[in-house]
Design goal:
Layout (H helix, E strand, L loop, with lengths): L2 H4 L6 E7 L3 H13 L5 E5 L2 E3 L8 E4 L3 H11 L5 E5 L1 E3 L3 E3 L4 H7 L6 E5 L8 E2 L14 E7 L12 E2 L1 H8 L9 H11 L8 E2 L2 E3 L6 H15 L6 E5 L7 E6 L4
Parallel strand pairs: 1-8, 1-10, 2-5, 2-8, 4-5, 9-11, 10-12, 10-13, 13-14
Antiparallel strand pairs: 3-7, 6-7, 14-15
Helix pairs in contact: 6-7
């Protein structure tokens, strides 16, 4: 099963990735998969991402002007199957993301079929806590994917495990060094979903299940996530994004 199949990504979707580490890897993996079967796939960010090395998988365009981006996309969506769009190149090798309201404008461009957007930053940590204004989720998002690493479960709360761990300590009302449980991860995840459109599908992804004991722990965490918001979370993807195939299994909520 591919990632796009696991998420049931259709045409005219806006996919927003939030949460912990692995989002950028997922962004490019979805770009490769989707562009193998359809044209007009756009990858972008409403935060900041590391600038990738040149790749035959996509062409890149940077501009601080929405009109210029739409004009370029109109031409190149017909010529290339996958496009990477951002606003500018920043010091330190990162790309500056576009405003969230631009996403709907870009989706309206002739030839654009799907947009995958990284809407959050986690500095590579398995988990994160939001500061005010995060994540930056476009209003037209149809699929919201909270990403988390199973290597964050069972480890002490600290900056190596949770990005902005001081905020996490306040949200969870636990001291530094407390062992991170599946319940704590679920509470952090619900913070990541704030600001997302009410009608968006939510499909969490648990990454690094190929680590020792990772699959067993991921199944426990998935069961917890499926119960935390039964109306909106009906499945959880268990993955190893650095391996092929990237999807290990999909856990579904039992029929009521």
């Amino acid at each position: 099963m591919t990632l796009s199949q696991a998420f049931s990504i259709g045409e005219r979707e806006v996919v927003s990735l939030v949460g912990g580490g692995g989002k950028t890897t997922l962004l490019y993996a979805l770009g490769r998969e989707l562009s193998a079967s359809r044209g007009g796939v756009v990858l972008t960010t409403t935060t900041k991402i590391l600038e990738p090395a040149p790749s035959p998988s996509f062409v890149q365009f940077l501009s601080p002007d929405l009109h210029a981006i739409k004009k370029w996309t109109t031409v190149h969506a017909q010529r290339h199957r996958c496009l990477l769009l951002a606003r500018a190149r920043l010091p330190g090798g990162k790309l500056d993301g576009i405003p969230p309201e631009w996403v709907d404008e870009i989706l309206s461009v002739d030839g654009v079929s799907t947009i995958v957007n990284e809407a959050d930053g986690a500095a590579g940590r398995p988990l994160k806590a939001n500061r005010e204004g995060e994540p930056v989720i476009p209003g037209g998002t149809t699929l919201l994917v909270p990403v988390m690493g199973i290597d964050g479960m069972g480890r002490p709360l600290g900056e190596e495990t949770v990005f902005r761990s001081a905020i996490a300590s306040r949200i969870l009302n636990i001291p530094f060094g407390s062992i991170v449980t599946e319940g704590m991860i679920a509470r952090l995840m619900m913070e990541w979903l704030k600001g997302g459109p009410a009608g968006a599908r939510i499909v969490p992804l648990i990454n690094k299940v190929d680590l020792p004991d990772g699959l067993r722990k991921a199944r426990i965490l998935a069961g917890h996530l499926l119960e935390v918001d039964p109306d909106r979370i009906r499945s959880v993807v268990l993955s190893r994004l650095q391996k092929s195939p990237p999807v290990k299994e999909v856990r579904h909520r039992a029929a009521d």
